[in-house]
Amino acid sequence: RSGSKHATTPADNYYLARRRTLQVVVSSLLTEAGFESAEKAAVETLTEMLQSYISEIGRSAKSYCEHTARTQPTLSDIVVTLVEMGFNVETLPAYAKRSQRMVITAPPVTNQPVTPKALTAGQNKPHPSHIPGHFPEFPDPHTYIKTPTYREPVSDYQVLREKAASQRRDVERALTRFMAKTGETQSLFKDDVSTFPLIAARPFTVPYLTALLPSELEMQQMEETDSSEQDDQTDTENLPLHMSTDDSGPEKENTSVLQQNSSLSGSRNGEENVIDNPYLRPVKKPKIRRKK
Amino acid sequence: MNRKKGDKGFESPRPYKLTHQVVCINNINFQRKSVVGYVELTIFPTVANLNRIKLNSKQCRIYRVRVNDLEAAFIYNDPTLEVCHHESKQNLNYFSNAYAAAVSAVDPDAGNGELCIKVPSELWKHVDELKVLKVHINFSLDQPKGGLHFVVPNMEGSMAERGAHVFSCGYQNSTRFWFPCVDSYSELCTWKLEYTVDAAMVAVSNGDLVETVYTHDMRKKTFHYMLTIPTAASNISLAIGPFEILVDPYMHEVTHFCLPQLLPLLKHTTSYLHEVFEFYEEILTCRYPYSCFKTVFIDEAYVEVAAYASMSIFSTNLLHSAMIIDETPLTRRCLAQALAQQFFGCFISRMSWSDEWVLKGISGYIYGLWMKKTFGVNEYRHWIKQELDQIVAYELKTGGVLLHPIFGGGKEKDNPASHLHFSIKHPHTLSWEYYTMFQCKAHLVMRLIENRISMEFMLQVFNKLLSLASTASSQKFQSHMWSQMLVSTSGFLKSISNVSGKDIQPLIKQWVDQSGVVKFYGSFAFNRKRNVLELEIKQDYTSPGTQKYVGPLKVTVQELDGSFNHTLQIEENSLKHDIPCHSKSRRNKKKKIPLMNGEEVDMDLSAMDADSPLLWIRIDPDMSVLRKVEFEQSDFMWQYQLRYERDVVAQEEAILALEKFPTPASRLALTDILEQEQCFYRVRMLACFCLAKIANSMVSTWTGPPAMKSLFTRMFCCKTCPNIVKTNNFMNFQSYFLQKTMPVAMALLRDVHNLCPKEVLMFILDLIKYNDNRKNKFSDNYYRAELIDALANSVTPAVSVNNEVRTLDNLNPDVRLILEEITRFLNMEKLLPSYRHTITVSCLKAIRVLQKNGHVPSDPALFKSYAEYGHFVDVRIAALEAVVDYTKVDRSYEELQWLLTMVQNDPVPYIRHKILDMLTKNPPFTKNMESPLCNEALVDQLWKLMNSGTSHDWRLRCGAVDLYFTLFGLSRPSCLPLPELGLVLNLKEKKAVLNPMIIPESVANNQEPVNSTSNHGQSVGFQNTFSNSQEEEEIDMDTVHDSQAFIYHHLNMLERPSTPGKEQSSGEMNMHPVLAAPLSVFAKESNSSKHSDHHHHHHHEHKKKKKKHKHKHKHKHKHDNKEKEKDPFAFSNSPASARSIRSPSLSD
């Protein structure tokens, strides 16, 4: 990330600051090791390595801590991590107390990030006596307080009708506007296509179906109202009227038609006569002509 | 002519009798829209030297004809394909005559036909012994444009999955469009019909389905039908499609068919049919004549109802669910109509075209009886009144409808309908509107006959006709009884006189043999001294479409003491009639007043004239004359009539009369009627509109809320919150209809500024807003549609400043509200479409109203998109109507062209017909109007349309003729340039004094005028007689040419050697400088070699007798087998062959 001088976001700033600090650390370690100077590329490489190393410690430690169902890593997490990475932890205190170590001043902290204040409403409840003080504070009252409402539910006829009407109208308007926005439209005014958008007319392949068939909702209503009336008619509907074009089994179908027919009449009509309608009769097989 | 023949028998115009016909269609290709099949006609010669058999066939390609298995030569010639070949001729008179002649030339009732088959010489001996002949014809149809209509939705899947279907259709006898036959209603025979269709499809046709058999590959099946009742070819029909089948639960021999997915609707729609059956069988005391009945509901129907032998084809749009109120009575009426025609029209057929009125009359009459029984007397009388008003208006407009035209030899009678721009000699030349009115008049006249002889006798007559026919139908052909199944005017009248013993000849003479209606003007005075009502009844019998009435006329007078009928004798000179009154004007206040129906009522008599005992007077209350009555009585009498007369017709008349009396008393009478629940709902609906008109006339003195508002609030709004309408409950149909109508009428209210009152608009908007149908058993789509109509009615012309362009910014705020609703409704239709898209239809109409009133920029683009193929037919019609209106208002040539293109190309015949119809009713210009649209190109285009573009559809062609007449009139269109040479020649021929102006009106109107084959001098003289006056009319140069051509033609005739073929070219050269027609025409015509001479004679072909058409035509294609292979189609559509039919008549 060289030369990104114009980086402005706080994240970028932190990144650059960390990187700079690490560079200082690497340089001081190099100085400690007796180097007088180093190529920039070498420093960069070392910095990269150091950063990776530290990152890995952090990542690993986090895993360990989460593994034990905690959110904050403890010292032991770090220790285990270091051990896991093949680092001899014993040597660490001694290294830390070595004489020639250089002390690096903390980087100047500029613009401390302001954590946005969480919404507070009301006073947080103090802990009751049986809860130790180190436990987290109670959350804001609004998160658990229940306010019972005692307002009368609206039952005034006029208001209800008013409400239903405007609600329906709003829904319809929103829906149609949405449809108009997402699809093709027509307009009555050449200069304005948005105020009265008309969903474009689209021809149907079978126009009579949409025009004649009631909507599903209406169908339901109808069934509710006159289901009794339809009862005695429904069986004719199920008669096998359409031979499928399936080539394999017209013969099979024929027999099934016959069976269905007879079973139907048997179950339904009982003593009554079978409906004798030529259109319900089975289709005959062609006569096999033996010529020659 | 027919009457003289008596009812002994029917004389066939053909030299043979058809006994049986086989129609076999063995292949139907939906993809290519083609049909392949054969027919076989069994005929018995009735004359020994039969050597030619004429049959009807149009569109069909005929591959091969065999007579008794011998190859036969045949000629296919259809002069109706292109009526006039003389392209410069563009006057309608000329066309109509030529068209009538062309139709005559192939008219089966005159023994003619398009297809002429030569009986092979080997069979001549056979024929001489009058032995049976079997004529076998192989034919195919490719993309038929008429007669058979294919509906093939453009989508994925097999034809059955797509719901593709095909059905026969047409106007009158149109069977020849789909198979060769004797296409006459009078040639009966038995039938065997076979259709091989895809295994997933069903073929529905006439007669009994004998069996269904798979083909050998099991992919198809063949439906075998037998029709043993002798039936005319014109009553044969077919419908093939993947139909769902419903066996009628009440009558197992009745089967209903509909397109896939519509079965629930079919069930509901047909659930009522058995009651209609029962009704007809009961009143006719006669079983339904066929052994089965089939109803088929198909898409893109030609007409809503088409009746054929033992089956009817309906529009699928008649299907409806139980939730739909408005469509139910309409559909039931269609079913009842179709069934009535099964008895009269299909089973009993007609002898000739001039007997058509008997069939239409009887079927319409018994349908009326059904109406009376089903919907009640009020509805029946309302319907009769409506029909009467319609026929009266039409006859007064056009000059008369003649039920029984007689075409004798006399010159006078040759053209019984000279006031019309078409010939009434054939059904195929009739304007559709005329035919509709013809049917209307026919059933009204039947009702008049009933009035005369009583219903009982009437039904006995019908029963007699039916029993004769059914006896005849079961006989073998050899018994010569089949003609008993044909009804003729004379036979019918004889039956009537036999059964009733009454002489109805005067009635027939008045209403059947002559056209026109009666126009009465009535007024009265009360003579107090003599206690007499002096009634004056005048007639107008000089205006077109009227006739003089002489005979009895019933007058009903409601007096204080009761209602009294008087029968006046209307005679030549008596205008005044004295009617003695029963009551003295002194009135007893306590006494109730007896009404006609015996009821006694209390009346507030304060409004009456103190000196007169008359409450109201009605002339011809039973509508027993086809008449229009304009009667004068004072406003209070109309008000009494409205309130207390129990006859709905009287109430409706009173309402119409009260429009002229905008007084508080009228207002009160109307409001009272509106509120009265016992009152017939249609009367109440009518009262709404009258009240709106009265309120507008009284606007300055009107007190209280807008008319009907408080009434509506009281009837339909919540008690607690009067501004909110109750949730919909349409259980009471009468109040439903009232609820629908009142807002529509209210929206017609206007304030002093001639604007719709804001209060009314807000009221309607609230109705829309609070409309709630959730708890309703019925659909509210018609109600909502009418609320939109109400919004449209409230629109008044925009106040325009300096013709500013209409934009959103200057939109009137009220209009903005209206637009808001329309937009929402129209958009919601896309998501939740309403039944028959009634709401879309109303929205489109409303948008056009807004455009027309200048609130929204006038633009046809929206309508054009809704008019495209693929929208529901009602929507298309509404959109097209708007485009037609736009074309007129904005004089748009582009839109006119667009419409005419659609007339030519649209896949749906009904749409094509309807566009012409709408253009005729709302024409962009008329003949006396200057218009930029009226130009030569348009004349050419329309001329072509009717001359050759519409030969596949009689109705469409007649529609084109109507339009041409409306736009250009009878003579040569004024926008055509005057032919250059015309004037010169006119001068040259001055001796002959060819006054061109009057000729088209008089000469050309005669259908078959003078027989002037040789004597041109006489003809000239004949024209000469018309040469006076008429200066005001423009010169019709065309006729000049006609006359010149005529003369030159005869000159040529004199010089012509006997062989015309050689001489004709020189003759043609002679003609060129004479005729002013463009040379190119001739150059083109002469290419067609042998036929080229005919057009010289052509102008006068209509003056020749029919005989001329029977000449043999040597130049026509004779096809034997080998030729057929090479050129099988040349004869089918070739204009060359078509035009030659009458050409050599003179030279022969």
Automatic annotation (TrEMBL), chain A:
Keyword terms of this UniProt record: Cytoplasm, Developmental protein, Differentiation, Nucleus, Transcription, Transcription regulation
SMART domains found in the cross-reference section: BTP
Stretches with biased composition (Basic residues): 282-292
Comp. bias regions, Polar residues: 255-268
Residue ranges annotated for the Bromodomain associated domain, each copy included: 14-91
Presence of the UniProt keyword Glycoprotein in the record: no
Highest taxon in the source lineage: Eukaryota
GO BP field: cell differentiation; transcription initiation at RNA polymerase II promoter
Biased composition (Acidic residues): 221-235
Alphabetical list of InterPro entries matching this protein: BTP, Histone-fold, TAF8, TFIID_su8_C
A single MF term (Gene Ontology): protein heterodimerization activity
UniProt region (Disordered), positions on chain: 220-292
Subcellular location: Cytoplasm; Nucleus
Primary localization: cytoplasm
Keyword Transcription listed: yes
GO cellular component assignments: cytoplasm; transcription factor TFIID complex
Family in the record: Belongs to the TAF8 family.
Protein name in the entry: Transcription initiation factor TFIID subunit 8
Organism, as annotated: Grus americana
Gene that this polypeptide is encoded by: Taf8
